[in-house]
């Protein structure tokens, strides 16, 4: 079985990009969302993206972006994928995919079994699905809250496109999350930080190691 692929999200400094690459991450995420402590201006993200070595895919995270915001980010930053973390409908996901010409990963928040239908609906148009913990009502951020959900809800789930598990993962929990869900890709932000927006290279390395040593349970 191939190794679990890791995305380190919310990178704000060149040293964090270097740490993600050195640890063996497959994806580096940049957040374009003003309310986030990980928000980066497009010009900053451009420098970070240019500092990323080949093989590290650059993902731009946006929340319900207007076309003008999308265009501004895409014009400045050499991205490999767009991550949509808002309330984008499947129709809007398809539109953004066509507009940007990039693969789109659509985040779906999960708190209960009722939330699982959205995964199948979005998988009809998105290139990848990010299964994240649903943000609590009134949360300032739709993601990046360091909260996990009940992984049993998605144990054995089949998704029509590649998917990634996110939500409150840490170096100490990621192996169990992979074993319980069968995830072959995982995404982390808060769990590898020294402070909001500042990654810790040792935690990044420990996370990637732990994710890769995890044995996934077979899907049902
Ligand atoms: O990280 C952020 O600040 C953020 C802001 C707005 C939407 C999503 C955000 N992060 C994404 O949330 C998940 C889970 O993060 P965590 O590990 O629980 O902190 C992750 O996919 C980030 O890509």
Automatic annotation (TrEMBL):
Domain (N-(5'phosphoribosyl) anthranilate isomerase (PRAI)): residue spans on this chain: 6-209
Catalytic activity as recorded in UniProt: N-(5-phospho-beta-D-ribosyl)anthranilate = 1-(2-carboxyphenylamino)-1-deoxy-D-ribulose 5-phosphate
Pathway the protein takes part in: Amino-acid biosynthesis; L-tryptophan biosynthesis; L-tryptophan from chorismate: step 3/5
GO biological process, any: L-tryptophan biosynthetic process
UniProt xrefs under CDD domains: PRAI (cd00405)
Family that this chain belongs to: Belongs to the TrpF family.
Protein name: N-(5'-phosphoribosyl)anthranilate isomerase
Organism: Roseivivax jejudonensis
UniProt gene name: trpF
